[in-house]
């Protein structure tokens, strides 16, 4: 049994260390330059700041999916998948609308080129439509759609 020179805790030494394992691990930690949290000695920033820097508002890096769409990492987005990815064309159109897209809304590329995410090439499509409904119900549905979207030209 050895006694740690720093915290005076007793520990079993597997070598000739003068500090206990806990104190040795704290020696390797340094403050992060961004948030002040602890980081590894050779790292530039802590793990939390590193992952934040890879997310969308901070990193504009884009990746191409197998089906040809561009996506970005944005874990804070409510509709991101479990790995934190969101399709870039959805994100661009959400910024134009000033709100998140609803689950039944989709974005269509007018020229069918999936990597062309210019705002003038994107248009909002809605998948919600009743089939085989009474006229009274259709009128109610039409009123809801008009209330949701208002003027058609403002939606895209």
Describe this structure in words.
With 156 residues, the protein is of the alpha+beta class. The protein folds into two domains: 2-53, no CATH class; 63-155, no CATH class. The protein has five helices and nine strands; from the N terminus they run ββαββαβββαββαα. It has helices spanning 21-27, 47-53, 88-97, 135-149, 152-155; strands at residues 2-3, 10-11, 29-31, 38-40, 63-64, 70-73, 85-87, 105-109, 122-126. The strands form four sheets. Strands 5-6-7 form a three-stranded antiparallel β-sheet. A two-stranded antiparallel sheet has the order 1-2. Strand 5 (63-64) and strand 6 (70-73) form a beta hairpin. The longest helix has 15 residues, at 135-149. The mean pLDDT is 84.
Mean pLDDT: 84
Number of helices: 5
In total, the number of strands is: 9
Q: Tell me the structural class.
A: alpha+beta
Rg (C-alpha, Å): 27 Å
Q: What pattern of helices and strands is seen along the backbone? A: EEHEEHEEEHEEHH
Task: Give the N-terminus to C-terminus distance in angstroms.
Answer: 73 Å
- Taken together, the total number of domains comes to 2
Q: Which sheet architecture does the biggest sheet show?
A: 3 strands, antiparallel
């Amino acid at each position: 049994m050895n006694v740690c020179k720093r915290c005076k805790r007793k520990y079993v030494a597997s070598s000739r260390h003068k500090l206990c394992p806990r104190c040795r691990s704290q020696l390797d930690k340094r403050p992060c330059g961004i948030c002040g949290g602890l980081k590894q000695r050779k790292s530039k920033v802590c793990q939390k700041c590193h992952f934040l820097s890879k997310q969308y508002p901070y990193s504009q890096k884009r990746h191409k999916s197998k089906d040809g769409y561009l996506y970005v990492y944005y874990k804070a987005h409510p509709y991101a998948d479990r790995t934190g990815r969101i399709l870039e064309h959805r994100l661009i159109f959400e910024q134009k609308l000033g709100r998140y897209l609803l689950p039944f809304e989709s974005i269509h590329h007018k020229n069918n080129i999936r990597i062309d995410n210019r705002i003038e090439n994107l248009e909002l499509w809605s998948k919600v439509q009743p089939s085989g409904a009474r006229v009274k119900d259709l009128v109610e549905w039409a009123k809801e759609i008009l209330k949701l979207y208002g003027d058609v030209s403002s939606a895209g």
